[in-house]
Specification:
It is a multi-pass membrane protein. The chain is mainly alpha-helical. Helices cover 69% and strands 6% of the residues. The longest helix has 26 residues.
Length: 247
């Protein structure tokens, strides 16, 4: 691999990791350009979307493309890529080492352990319901239903690889469970329980990144992220609407 090919491969690896794990496009482009400049490239061109990352070096016959086939939210990996870029800028590590460590980061687990994610879902469901409704009587039903809903979403999304179907099924489970606990007298307000239990599934980061990318002038990635977030919200809303219609 030539020096130019190594530079482009390193930049693409960094950009691909960041896009796959939920970074906004402007940060991805800035990180790739900084790595290239610190590697001695005077003029480079990058084109970043949520489905692919491209880069070329002006005046040289060096162009590469990296496809982005899956996306999740892992901002810790985004921060680690930025940290590696800073170490490379400070000459703490050289280019081959940066490329090796990026590959190691890419091969690492893409998410936190399931048990930790379930704890996070529980902590999001109950406390947010208390924050918005200023009452605690429905806290435990909300925590349990929110955790079960996230577990169903996680398992279906892991094995079926269809995110929107997983969200729809989780929303149906949350809606039916909320109605059931209210009918047996454990919960008092089905709307509060549903709102709290849905919080771990709400696409907050994609929607935020869609707005940031659009405001930054990325009129391809911004609307694309917005559509993705809206489809997730529609799947959740449709699932709850079905339950409300039936009951």
């Amino acid at each position: 691999m030539t020096t130019d090919e190594m530079i482009i491969a390193t930049c693409l690896k960094a950009g691909k990791i960041m896009v796959e794990n939920g970074s906004e496009i402007s940060r991805v482009d800035d990180t790739m350009m900084r790595i290239a400049q610190n590697a001695g490239v005077v003029a480079a061109n990058t084109y970043v979307t949520i489905t692919g990352v491209m880069m070329s070096i002006q005046g040289r016959n060096a162009t590469q493309i990296a496809a982005v086939n899956q996306r999740t939210i892992d901002l810790e990996k985004v921060a680690q890529v930025n940290q590696l870029s800073r170490e490379f800028a400070a000459t703490t590590i050289d280019l081959p080492t940066l490329y090796q460590r990026l590959n190691q980061l890419d091969a690492a687990s893409r998410s936190f352990p399931l048990w930790l994610q379930l704890i996070g879902a529980a902590l999001v469901s109950g406390p947010l319901m208390i924050m918005f409704r200023q009452e605690t009587i429905n806290t435990w039903p909300t925590i349990i239903i929110g955790t079960l809903g996230y577990l169903v979403f996680y398992l279906l999304n892991r094995y079926l690889k269809i995110k929107f179907l997983s969200e729809l099924t989780a929303a149906l489970l949350i809606g039916f469970s909320a109605e059931w606990v209210c009918q047996i007298g454990w919960g008092t307000n089905v709307n509060d329980i549903i709102i709290g239990a849905l919080m771990p599934l709400v696409p907050g980061v994609p929607l935020t990144n869609a707005v940031r990318d659009t405001l930054a002038g990325n009129f391809v990635s911004g609307p694309a992220r917005g559509v993705e977030a809206m489809l997730s919200a529609a799947a959740l809303g449709f699932g709850i609407a079905v339950v409300i219609t039936l009951f």
